[in-house]
Amino acid sequence: MSEVVTITMDGPGKNSLGSSMFEHLQSSLRAAAGRPVLITGAGDAFSAGLNLREVAGLTTREALESFLRSLDATCAALFDYPGPTVAWVNGHAIAGGCVVALCCDVRVATDHARCRVGLNEVPLGLAFPPKIMAILKHRVPRRHIRDVVLGGSLVSTSRAVEWGLLDEVSDRARERAEERAAALATHSATAYAAAKAELQWGVTASADAASDLRFYRDLMPMWLSEEVRAHLRKAMGR
């Protein structure tokens, strides 16, 4: 049985996703080197999404493109990781935090009435980077993806299970996530990696040069719009 590696997202703003978190996740996945991984958040949240203060400070196309490419690459690295990945969703998993959970093979959430899960990028006026959109199309069941992406709702963990954002909710979520990771750790690492690669073949690669060009030329500018900046100021309480 392979050792399960725990990666904890620990940062300001309920473990917000910014440049330092991207580097932490990517370097931790490289160090895990194919071993089973359990991903969770510090404290009472999984991740509340992007670091809005950092995003608000990205005022040029060049800086924003670098940030979004790093976000896209981080999610692709987790989604394409060859070993088993289990998310212990120990609290809110919102926007980018929900995407990180969806990149994992298994998602187990804490049974907490106040916990919210979902993708609220559209209400904030944001377009999804190409690799992330490809992952969402693959992971979220077709019958629910319009509600999840276009509706932009933040829902309870029970509704998140119905919509395919989570696999399981438990009042002993940590133990269940560890059990799921340990069970997957008993499999042949080579066979698991091969089967996972076949199941997910071409997903992140489908974000080809054409879709990449379209996003960064035509869609990324909305991140710099005054509408989005107003949403960010409101979200940060300014």
Considering the chains and any ligands shown, give keywords for the structure.
238 residues; alpha/beta; 2-enoyl-CoA Hydratase, Chain A, domain 1; globular
Topology:
Layout: E1 5-9, H1 12-15, H2 19-32, E2 37-41, E3 45-47, H3 52-56, H4 61-79, E4 85-89, E5 92-94, H5 96-102, E6 106-110, E7 117-118, H6 121-124, H7 130-139, H8 145-151, E8 154-155, H9 157-162, E9 168-170, H10 173-185, H11 189-199, H12 209-219, H13 226-235
Parallel strand pairs: 1-2, 2-4, 3-5, 4-6, 5-7, 6-9
Antiparallel strand pairs: 7-8
Helix pairs in contact: 2-4, 4-7
Going by CATH, the homologous superfamily would be 2-enoyl-CoA Hydratase, Chain A, domain 1
Euclidean distance between termini CA atoms: 50 Å
User: What do the pLDDT scores average to?
Assistant: 96
Q: How many H/I helical runs? A: 13
Percentage of residues in strands:
5-15%
Query: How does the overall form come out from the CA principal axes?
Result: globular
Total individual domains: 1
Q: How many strand units? A: 9
Major sheet characteristics: 5 strands, parallel
What is the CATH domain class? Alpha Beta
Radius of gyration: 17 Å
